Amino acid sequence: MTPDLDRLHELLDASPGLARRPAGGVAEPDLRRAEERVGPLPASYRWWLAEYGVGWIGGEQLATVAAPGFDDEHDAITAPWRHDGQRLCFFTDADGDAYSYALDRRCGDELPVVRRSALDGVEDDVADSFAGFLAVTDALARGLGDGPNPTVARLWRATPGLLRDDGMLIYGPHVIQERNETFEVADYAPEWVLVGDDSGGNGLLMRQHGRDRSSVWLLDLGAISENIEDDGELVTDDLIGWLEHRPS
Q1: What are phi and psi of 46, to 5 degrees?
Q2: Taking the domains of the chain in order of start, what are their residue ranges?
Q3: Helices (H), 15-149
Q4: Of 46, 41, 5, 13, which Cα lies nearest the Cα of 27?
Q5: What is the CATH number of domain 5-138?
Q6: Nearest Cα to 156, choosing from 137, 182, 179, 180?
Q7: pTM exceeds cut of 0.70
Q8: pLDDT of 23-52, one tens digit each?
Q9: Which CATH architecture is the domain 162-244 placed in?
């Protein structure tokens, strides 16, 4: 799934834990120079570099693009130590775990993110894109775990929410708590979670528990109750597919 960069911008603005320098991003010639050394950068990471340039998570710096003449510096994405076969490391956390792009698994303009444990060297999948990596990181920092259910967790691994051209919005981790608290979903429909809205007064709701955690129901935000399946309208039973084939 292509990351929604507007939602990524919102996530970064709303998430102090995903620190960034406001001085400006990396110039296009410098981005191209870096890509001559390491290959095409993932689109959402490239966008982040152009918009922000430098950032930190938990006090540890994300790799950036260095000024001409400093391409081998430790914090540069072009530093030789970062490129290890089919892996390009862009972040190392405080525990020493390395987060890298899997260069052998490119999907369109994005590269999946994998984590290699500093303790035993075991590698596991983290996200489908750099945007998803930031969404997953933010969700964990907010105490949301992977997400309110497996379907939304899968979405966040690719993008921190998504706005369709028809106004249907799926929330990212930076807004989902506030929306659910505003409409008191936990009080009126404790088995459900508000995952988005239609930009017109109706909410998109999914079950948090049970066997069916893939169906999405549309209901007036003023009429939320435990009877969502009776009072609402079934939108889709495949959220990811529905979003990937959004109208133009």
Answers
A1: -60, -40
A2: 5-138, 162-244
A3: 28-38, 43-51, 130-141
A4: 46
A5: 3.40.1580.10
A6: 137
A7: yes
A8: 679 999 999 999 999 999 999 999 999 999
A9: 3-Layer(aba) Sandwich (3.40)
